[in-house]
Amino acid sequence: MRMLPRLMIEPLVRAALLEDLGRAGDLTTDAIIPADQEARVALVSREPGVIAGGECARLAWELVDPRIDVHDLLPDGSRVAPGTVIATITGPARGLLTGERVALNFLGHLSGVATGTATIADAIAHTKARVVDTRKTLPGLRALQKHAVLAGGGANHRFGLDDAVLIKDNHIAAAGSVRAAVLAAKAGVGHLVKIEVEVDSLSQLSELLEVGADAVLLDNMGPELLREAVAIVDGRLITEASGRITPASAVPIAEAGVDLISVGWLTHSAHVLDIGLDYLA
Fold first, then answer.
1. Contact yes or no for 277/100 (Cβ under 8 A)
2. 58 and 127, same structural domain?
3. Residues 156 and 261 in one domain
4. Which residues are known to be catalytic?
5. According to the model, what pLDDT value does residue 281 have?
6. pTM above 0.85, yes or no
7. Quinolinate phosphoribosyl transferase C-terminal domain spans which residues (predicted)?
8. Residues forming a β-bridge with 80
9. Which residue, 18, 49, 109, 259, is the most exposed by fewest CB within 10 angstroms?
């Protein structure tokens, strides 16, 4: 899969390293390890999952010491089993140990996002629905987390407030109605900007269909109500389901016929994939 450009990820990795090194550097490693000692280590998965964030890990070590080499790094999107070697790393032992935590933080977290995405993508693979992320991302890490969702077989929703219109319940409340909110949005944005509207009832859906939009977010509806909503839409809008969706509940929701299922916990509460750094020599 396409990797994010270094220009995007280097500031994040550099900031993480600066946070870890503080004002005096790695006191432990510098006191114990001779400056000329070389080492060879391996990144190893402790549990099954999907890898993402490998380039962040590589860059963490490269920024600590450019003499460090990362070999045979599995590409993002690779599926691993317990014991799978994700990469081997060679170079100055001090740099390997100093960069270890930052490299593992990025790799473990982003692989967790990819793995969580894959659990839902796999569960609904027999349907037309796709799992997508949300804006419920960790501050500063949105691009990396959304990249990890792609690695797990999902798709990206909007990246921010500036690339699409999503009219939610409070927008509708402030505007007075679905119709008023949609008409105002159409008058206020350019013709290339997509408009999606969140509805939580069939009456709101009917009102939306009267004024038209590009997509509808069917919020907190059960499978039967979703099935009815999809039939009413009849292909006129992209249909998206959301609301506390788990891998188990995603299946009947996808089978109701929606196009998209958006899941916030993929990014805001992702389980960290257990990846270790094993000392080889």
1. yes
2. no
3. yes
4. 101, 136, 168, 198, 219
5. 76
6. yes
7. 113-278
8. 49
9. 18
> Confidence band (pLDDT; 50, 70, 90) for 119?
very high
Same domain, 49 and 183: no
Residue pLDDT, tens place only, 58-71: 999 999 999 999 99
**Count of domains forming the chain:** 2
In a domain, 94, yes or no: yes
- Rounded to the nearest 10°, the torsion over CA 152, 157, 161, 162 is 100
The rounded distance, in Å, linking the Cα atoms of 133 and 224 is 23
Distance (Å, whole) CA 109 – CA 16 = 14
The amino acid occupying position 199 is V
Q: Answer whether residue 126 is part of any domain.
A: yes
- In tens, the pLDDT along 33-48 reads 999 999 999 999 999 9
Q: How far apart are CA 176 and CA 158, in angstroms?
A: 25
Q: Are residues 164 and 242 in the same domain?
A: yes
Give yes or no: residues 82 and 58 share one domain: yes
Tell me if 28 is assigned to some domain. yes
16 and 143 belong to one structural domain: no
pLDDT of residue 129: 98
Instruction: Kindly state whether residues 164 and 67 are assigned to the same domain.
Output: no
207 with 74, same domain: the answer is no
Judge whether 1 lies within some domain.
no
Structural domain boundaries, residue 153: 122-268
For residue 179, what are its two tokens? 């119709």
The pLDDT assigned to 265 comes to: 97
The pLDDT of 168-197, averaged and rounded, is: 97
